[in-house]
Design a protein that fits this description.
The structure is a single chain. The protein has about 375 residues and is of the alpha/beta class. It has 2 domains: about 180 residues, 3-Layer(bba) Sandwich (FAD/NAD(P)-binding domain); about 120 residues, FAD/NAD(P)-binding domain (3-Layer(bba) Sandwich), CATH 3.50.50.60. A hairpin with a 5-residue loop joins β23 and β24. Bound molecules: flavin-adenine dinucleotide. This is NADH dehydrogenase. GO terms for molecular function: NAD(P)H dehydrogenase (quinone) activity.
């Protein structure tokens, strides 16, 4: 029997499994997902006060669609012999989908780095939540004013004083100027102090030292400076992009027998843009990569990667949220309206469970247009 093996159990891995099961139909094909976790972790929800709500049992998705789950970590991908080594055991494949995701870029040699918190993983978010539980007036420093840092800072501002620190001279540097004014207004509303053009150079017990030499009170320092693809990508390609991702073609093929999805894939969206390391891309990337891995073995036509329009939705805690559309991130909704859209997105990213038909139907919908997204014609005139 031929084997499709998927490495990773996040958005990309799970939807690859469903995509492969969709293409398989009744054919004789084994689909195996290898990941150490028992749960699919919905990382976009990890800034929330109850991180355990951001986890879905993998067995409830993989079981109904007859995908085997091997709970192990892959250390080696041998593309010549077509095997992966997972916790010391070899697993052979005919087609592989690499969907091992990304992880937080951690500081190199920062004194006190072991005291840092993060919301990159379920365990990280649980640790931060447990550390601050029951404390009403803590001081928190958030390092990194990008998407994740802004969500962490505005969530933490609900019960404490927050200082937001970034090397850049502006907040949300990589989000561009589109939403900046709305972000600044939200930070002001929540009383979040900013120290821009600076970083943290030391973390101690109850304090942090900034690069300008000042010491600040810090019951928790949350590190959120960006993500990088899993190092497994280095075993697939020598031509990784700046985020460590594998270049892929329009069918998401990185090598003749290897497809790549999610935060490990540098796929083109159009002539000008490459996918973001975001679940809104990881999900359709997974659906297409998994489908194609199986279709390639079964002689079925492959699918092209055609995601829906690019949007972002940033949670800003007590100040609501910001929903943007387009690569210039035009603000379509802010305040309470933006917050409500984010709440709906955070529910919509949960995959269907326990129902093979619903899971396979969702795997077949690559371009998602959610009903609550405001459309272009609703953009207020500039
Ligand atoms: C706090 C936070 C907020 C975010 N907010 C948003 C948002 O609002 N919108 C948005 O679109 N995106 C957001 N993102 C980004 C989004 O979460 C990621 O783009 C998405 O999780 C990528 O999915 P993935 O499946 O590629 O990778 P991951 O979710 O990282 O999953 C990777 C999987 O691979 C497994 N794995 C890793 N290494 C191995 C190995 N060696 N062997 C086997 N398995 C392995 C992991 O255990 C995991 O199961 C956010 C991320 C964070 C951290």
């Amino acid at each position: 029997m031929a084997d499709v093996v998927i490495v990773g159990g996040g958005f990309a891995g799970v939807w690859s499994a469903a995509g492969a099961a969709l293409a398989r139909g009744d054919a004789d094909l084994r689909i195996t997902l290898v990941a150490p976790n028992e749960h699919m972790v919905l990382r976009p929800r990890l800034y929330e006060p109850e991180p355990d709500l951001a986890a879905v049992e993998l067995s409830r998705i993989l079981g109904p669609i007859a995908v085997e789950h091997v709970r192990a970590t892959v250390s080696t991908i041998d593309t010549d012999r077509r095997v992966v080594v997972a916790d010391g055991a070899e697993i052979g494949y005919d087609r592989l989908v690499l969907a091992a995701g990304s992880e937080l870029v951690r500081p190199d040699g920062l004194p006190g780095a072991e005291r840092l918190f993060d919301i990159d993983t379920l365990d990280g978010a649980r640790r931060l939540t447990a550390h601050l539980r029951g404390r009403e007036d803590y001081s928190a420093v958030v390092v990194g004013a990008g998407f994740v840092g802004l969500e962490a800072a505005t969530a933490l501002a609900a019960r404490g004083r927050v200082l937001l620190v970034d090397r850049s001279d502006v907040v949300g540097d990589q989000l561009g100027p589109g939403p900046r004014e709305a972000i600044e207004a939200a930070l002001d509303e929540l009383g979040i102090e900013r120290r821009l053009g600076t970083t943290v150079t030391e973390v101690g017990d109850g304090y942090a030292v900034l690069s300008d030499g000042t010491g600040v009170a810090a019951d928790a320092v949350v590190w959120s400076v960006g993500m990088r693809a899993s190092r497994l990508t280095e075993q697939i390609s020598e031509e990784l992009d700046g985020l460590g991702r594998v270049p892929v073609d329009r069918h998401l093929r990185g090598l003749p027998e290897v497809f790549v999805a999610g935060d490990t894939a540098a796929a083109a969206v159009d002539a000008l843009h490459t996918v973001m390391q975001a679940c809104q891309h990881a999900t359709p990337l997974g659906k297409v990569a998994g489908y194609n891995a199986a279709a390639d073995l079964l002689g079925v036509p492959l699918r092209e990667f055609t995601p829906g329009p690019y949007v972002t939705c940033l949670d800003l805690g007590g100040a609501g949220g910001i929903f943007t559309r387009g690569w210039d991130r035009r603000v379509m909704a802010s305040g309470a309206d933006g917050g409500e859209i984010k709440r709906q997105i955070n529910l919509a990213i949960h995959p269907p469970v326990d129902d093979a038909e619903a899971i396979l139907a969702a795997a077949d919908r690559v371009r998602i247009e959610l009903p609550f997204f405001p459309r272009d014609e609703e953009v207020p005139a500039a």
